[in-house]
Amino acid sequence: MKEEIMQLTEEIISTGTEEDQVVLDLLLKGLKQKQHFDKGSYIGALLHADGEYKDQEFTITIPNTPIIQNALHIVHGGITATLLDSAMGGLVHHILPPDKAAVTTEIKINYVAPGIGKELTCKASLIHKGNKTVVTEGKVYRDDGTLIAHSTASFFIINRK
């Protein structure tokens, strides 16, 4: 497997476009961050996500790179959904006790503007916390302050194993 990976990497470097090389660089740097525990998940590493919990709000910012763009060169809607789910789930993680976790049971997203610019920022806030479920709200903004998506999500609280 190592030889195949080395061969593919060399092929991309020698025959790929400049954009291919940028994408390869982003992938490898993200993987390196995951290996050094700078990122908690592969998806967080791939997206180069930076998160912060402050004042009952969880914020994640990601750079807008070719990895996350669709054929129209705007952020893919699925990436926006992942960003929303990650931020709202991150918020829930921060408000639960250490012996509890949560899983997404429902998510509703309204896309209102294209994902363009240098970065996207998602801000997640709490709507309701019960004994079994948590309801959150998330908003994704472009770097010019334009709202691109609004979401609500429900999470089911479970015991950690």
From TrEMBL:
Gene3D superfamilies: Hotdog Thioesterase. InterPro entries: HotDog_dom_sf, PAAI_dom, Thioestr_dom. One of its GO terms (molecular function) is 1,4-dihydroxy-2-naphthoyl-CoA thioesterase activity. Residues 74-148 form the Thioesterase domain. One of its GO terms (cellular component) is cytosol. Keywords: Hydrolase. PANTHER family: 1,4-DIHYDROXY-2-NAPHTHOYL-COA THIOESTERASE 1, BLR5584 PROTEIN. This is Fe-S cluster assembly protein HesB. It comes from Bacillus weihaiensis.
